[in-house]
């Protein structure tokens, strides 16, 4: 992934576009990010764990997500490419440097556990595991793993980690894609799949990934 | 109105296939398959509808295996075959010397129409094969994938791994007739009509816009924390010059019918062919049939194989002659696929 991003940056710089803004933003600083993230903690919590809110709007875990992914989402909220009434005003408070810093801050946190999969039946979890790891090709639903990587731990900045994410958040996002309310994914890669998923399929993968744990790197 | 017309037409097609008696579908299949109108989902996505007189087979799933009336030991072996098929990287350094799994190209675990489903091999072999000009059985056919597509050397005939892989193929063919007279629906990677002209430059543009997000700008694919995610399309991590998918039409058929992942048939025919042309005009490990001369290779294997590939072509933009090298990839010079160039039945009389 990084090769592509560096190549893309080189292209932009070479063409003399956006030179100002690219040079103005330095590398992400987690310490500065912590300060800038003071307003985020009310929902996303001090440890970045977010919260599964049954019957309400769940707040996603940010801890351990890829920095580039977080940056893109914040820019997309600002530009209206991703819509969320709760999130938009907070995203708008951040300048470009703070976005990079906040992303760096959350990305280096340890992945926390997720809620919403606790009471899922074995049948639902089995269905979730099937879609996650093998897909359901009879409905042309490719496995989540084929892009989000083994264990759903995420691949680069384009395919976020979804293991140990709150079921309520996964469910809401998949429904948003399915209903055409979210479309800031590259090349409609997620949207195309979500539109083929039934409500039960979405329930199942949400519960499955919420009940998966992600061990910190270097452990075990 | 349009919807109603569509489903009516499908029902007619389904009925005529059923009447011809060549539909097979596993009764326990957990998908939304219907023996009357199999693959209706695919048809609605734009794939061709099954035609009267075609063999339309819906392979059983691994979930179906649990309920199947088969010996528990056989079930274990089929599960092992499935595991090898979907995680062939476990044979890395022994039989596999690149970044591929069987399921990298045979999507949907080898069950998917228009993605070279593998069960037809189990019902049509032994048969004559143009590529090596003799009669091959299922194990020899699988061995070919190891020598070319996996840039490796196959498990021995009759070995546990080979038996497990062939058992998985046979399981997927459950219920389909042996040596069918009918053409098989969704077999291979059927290419769209070849456009008048193919463009490397246009192919490169489409590649960078549509494919590079997963396969990378340099075609090397992607591993995350040492685990396979996206397959390499060229370079040492990919199949060698002898693999079927180096043929431009095969690559075009794969791409048109399967890529980008989850968005089949989204590229135009021209785009699919241009990307295929671009991808198959990149370097990759040498064809194991090579013995020092690209010209000799073209003489020997041009008529049966490389007339469809870019092997030995000189690339326009950099004057590079493709495949004119002795790079064997990760397997080096020491590992030589034992199955390549072995003749059979030379003394049989007509």
From TrEMBL, chain A:
The keyword Ubl conjugation does not apply. One of its GO terms (cellular component) is periplasmic space. Residues 28-110, 123-213 form the Cytochrome c domain. Heme c 2 binds at residues 144, 147-148, 190. Keywords: Heme, Iron, Metal-binding. PROSITE patterns: CYTC. Binds 2 heme c groups covalently per subunit. Transmembrane segments: none annotated. GO terms for molecular function: electron transfer activity; heme binding; iron ion binding. The keyword Ribonucleoprotein does not apply. Heme c 1 binds at residues 40, 43-44, 87. This is Cytochrome c. It comes from Vreelandella salicampi.
